[in-house]
Amino acid sequence: MYKNRHCAPLDYQKIKKEIDHFYFSLSKEDNLSKEECDSLYKEISDFDIDIASRFLQIISLNDDKKIIKDKCQIIFDELLKNIIVDINEHN
């Protein structure tokens, strides 16, 4: 669901773009920008508050960027799969 409605393909494309931007920033920046993390958190929470909370937990641990990327990959994959399921079931 996206903001209490079923997901559409454009919703998937939007969040995928945000996630890709996060990975790009993670690979280029020394530190993650609080603004970027807050923005991605908000976007993710529009889809799934539990996954958004896990995202905040991961980035708050101050782990190595590789560890952050690996942990985020797991939850982002879950989010994207959930969106695809919602799209396929309701469109």
Order of helices and strands: HHHH
Q: How would you classify the helix and strand content by structural class?
A: mainly alpha
Helix amount: over 70%
* Mean pLDDT reading: 91
Radius of gyration: 13 Å
Portion of residues in beta strands equals under 5%
Helix segment count? 4
The global form is elongated
Flag low-confidence runs.
none
Give a count of the beta strands, DSSP E runs of length 2 or more: 0
Measured distance between first and last alpha carbons: 12 Å
Largest sheet: none
Assembly state = single chain
What does this 3D model show about the protein?
The longest helix is centred in the C-terminal third of the chain and has 26 residues, at 65-90. Helix 1 runs antiparallel to helix 4. The radius of gyration is 13 Å and the shape is elongated. The chain is built from 4 helices and no strands. It is 79% helix and 0% strand. It is an all-alpha fold and 91 residues long. The two termini are 12 Å apart.
Which terms would index this structure?
mainly alpha; elongated; 91 residues; single chain
Question: In short, what is this structure?
Answer:
79% of the residues lie in helices and 0% in strands. It contains four helices and no strands.
